[in-house]
Write a structure and sequence with these properties.
The protein has 301 residues and is mostly helical. It has two domains: 46 residues, no CATH class; 228 residues, MetI-like fold (Orthogonal Bundle). Helices cover 71% and strands 0% of the residues. The protein contains 13 helices and no strands. Helix 3 packs across helix 13. The N and C termini lie far apart (58 Å). It is found in: Cell membrane. Belongs to the binding-protein-dependent transport system permease family. It is a multi-pass membrane protein.
């Protein structure tokens, strides 16, 4: 008796593939709404009548459009001084971070560096072991950096995670044979770094600039600990002070308390927009290299 041939397994048809595509689109749309709605709400609330915001009338579009919150914020000279300080701290801090990370990551990526694995182990241990807040503060104080710009820059001059990502990028994306050929042609280490390594490292440099710059711009805890003079306050600390003052003024006294509460509510949303705007403006300029640099620097190797 002849054996019956096994029937071939049914393959997914075009209809099944279309359903899968629609499911992916639906999930992506839900994620986009979850991510974008809070930002749109904050923008709308900052331009809306605070009474309508507290009443739950604002969902997506502004209602009772007003710019009183922005007028109160931008009329304050501390805001502009804080902006200037934050721009200075971010620019200088990011430059220091990039130089220090580059000078550490590139040697650690070279296979001809003596004791490379031991040095990399010591660097990695700093991700898990820390002296703690009090010892770091005492060190910064003994170095005379309290109430100076350098207290916000020097302690975090190198991020271990960013160093490892950049080192991995150098190892996986820049052929060692290219570097050996440059040495055979008489290229010095500094010339190799400036003429070959840096031009080939634009994606990872863009990623590092964005990571470090956003970190400096959003940082306020270090300034809260180390900065004493109001003239040196970064923007985040100035906005925090304004918000706390507005809330405390709303609580103190009975005359005009309702108006102060409403103004404090409106200021709360406006300060988020004011402090986030520079980062949102900067991101499109590095977005072209961002995804490529992160994927190559973190997955390969």
């Amino acid at each position: 008796m002849s054996k019956r041939a096994a029937a071939p397994k049914a393959q997914a048809g075009p209809a099944d593939e279309r359903w899968f595509d629609w499911l992916v689109y639906l999930i992506a749309a839900v994620i986009i709404v979850i991510v974008l709605y809070p930002l749109l709400f904050v923008v709308s609330a900052s331009f809306s009548d605070p009474a309508k915001v507290l009443g739950g009338e604002v969902w997506l579009l502004p209602k009772g459009v007003t710019v009183d919150a922005y007028a109160n914020i931008l009329d304050n000279d501390k805001i502009w001084r804080g902006y200037a300080n934050s721009i200075l701290y971010t620019a200088v801090g990011t430059a220091v971070n990039i130089v220090m990370t580059l000078l550490a990551a590139y040697p650690l990526s070279r296979p001809d560096l003596p004791l490379r694995k031991g040095l990399m182990l010591i660097v990695t241990l700093t991700m898990f072991l820390s002296g703690g807040l009090i010892p770091i503060y005492l060190l910064v104080k003994d170095l005379g950096m309290v109430d100076t710009m350098w207290a916000l820059i020097v302690p975090g001059a190198v991020s271990t995670y960013n160093l490892i990502v950049m080192r991995t990028y150098f190892q996986s994306s820049i052929p060692w044979e290219l570097q050996e050929a440059a040495h055979m042609d008489g290229c010095s280490n500094w010339r190799l770094l400036a003429s070959i390594i840096l031009p080939l490292s634009k994606p990872i440099l863009a990623v590092m600039v964005l990571f470090y710059a956003v970190g400096h711009w959003n940082s306020f805890f270090n300034a809260l600990i180390y900065i004493r003079s109001e003239e040196l306050y970064p923007l985040q600390l100035v906005l925090r002070e304004i918000l706390l003052i507005s809330q405390s003024d709303a609580v103190d006294g009975l005359v005009g308390m309702e108006d102060k509460v409403l103004l404090a509510e409106s200021i709360k949303y406006a300060v988020i927009i004011v402090s986030s705007l520079p980062v949102l403006i900067m991101y499109p300029f590095v977005q072209r290299h961002f995804v490529k640099g992160v994927m190559i620097g973190s997955i390969k190797g």
